[in-house]
TrEMBL record:
High-level lineage: Eukaryota, Metazoa, Ecdysozoa, Arthropoda, Crustacea
Compositional bias of kind Basic and acidic residues: 33-72
Organism encoding this protein: Tigriopus californicus (Marine copepod)
GO biological process, one term: regulation of neurotransmitter secretion
Keyword hit for Transport: yes
Protein name in UniProt: Complexin
UniProt cross-references to InterPro entries, sorted A to Z: Synaphin
Region (Disordered): 1-72
Family: Belongs to the complexin/synaphin family.
Length: 100
C-alpha cells in the first residue's frame, strides 16, 4: 500500500474531490430524482407556454397585416371599377357624339 502511495502521492486526495475520485456519490446534488423530474416537467411546460405565446403574437400580427392587405385590395378593386365605369361613360358619350 505504501508503495502505491509513493507512486501516486495524490491517490488519497482525489477520493475526497467529487467527480475525480471514487469518494463522491450522485446523492450530493441536493435534489432527489422526483425533484429533478418535477423541475424538468416545469421547464418543458414553460417552454411550451413561451412557444404558444410566440405563435399567438405572430398570428395576431399576421391577422393585422391581412386586414391591411384586404383594405388595399378593396381600394384597388374600387379604383378599377371606377375606371371601368368612366371608360363605359366615355364610350357612350363618344358614340352619341359620333352619331350626331
Amino acid at each position: 500500500m505504501m508503495m502505491l502511495k509513493m507512486m501516486n502521492p495524490f491517490g488519497s486526495v482525489t477520493d475526497s474531490i467529487p467527480g475525480v475520485g471514487g469518494g463522491g456519490g450522485d446523492d450530493d446534488e441536493g435534489e432527489s430524482k422526483e425533484e429533478q423530474m418535477e423541475q424538468e416537467r416545469l421547464r418543458q411546460e414553460a417552454i411550451k407556454q413561451a412557444e404558444r405565446e410566440r405563435r399567438d403574437k405572430y398570428k395576431k400580427q399576421e391577422d393585422e397585416r391581412e386586414v391591411m392587405r384586404q383594405s388595399i385590395r378593396d381600394k384597388v378593386q374600387a379604383k378599377a371599377m371606377a375606371e371601368q365605369q368612366l371608360n363605359n361613360i366615355k364610350g357612350q358619350v363618344g358614340e352619341k357624339c359620333s352619331i350626331q
